[in-house]
Write a structure and sequence with these properties.
alpha+beta, YaeB-like fold, five-stranded mixed beta sheet, 40% helix, Putative toxin-antitoxin system, toxin component, RelE/ParE family, RelE/ParE_toxin_dom_sf
Length: 80
C-alpha cells in the first residue's frame, strides 16, 4: 500500500504550479508519470537507493526528473 503524506501532497502541488507556468500539459504529464512510478514501488520496494539522508535501510530515495523523493518502507506500506 502506498501512503502519501500531506507534506508530499503540498510539495507536489507546488511543483505542479511551477511546471504549469510553462505548460499545463507538461505539468499534468509530470504528475501522471510520477504517481505511476511511485505506485509501482509496491512491486519492488528496494529497487531505489538507500537514502543518503538517513542511516536506515527502510528509508529510500526515488530520483525522478531531478527531484529526490524520500520514502519509507514499513510493513508492506510505502510512505512518501
Amino acid at each position: 500500500m502506498v501512503i502519501f503524506k500531506s507534506q508530499f501532497k503540498d510539495e507536489l502541488k507546488r511543483i505542479y504550479g511551477y511546471i504549469k507556468q510553462d505548460s499545463k500539459d507538461r505539468a499534468n504529464n509530470f504528475i501522471s508519470e510520477l504517481i505511476k512510478k511511485l505506485e509501482n514501488i509496491e512491486n519492488n520496494p528496494f529497487m531505489y537507493r538507500k537514502s543518503l539522508y538517513f542511516d536506515d535501510d527502510s528509508k529510500r530515495d526515488f530520483i525522478f526528473k531531478g527531484y529526490t523523493i524520500p520514502y519509507e518502507i514499513v510493513d508492506e506500506k510505502f510512505t512518501f
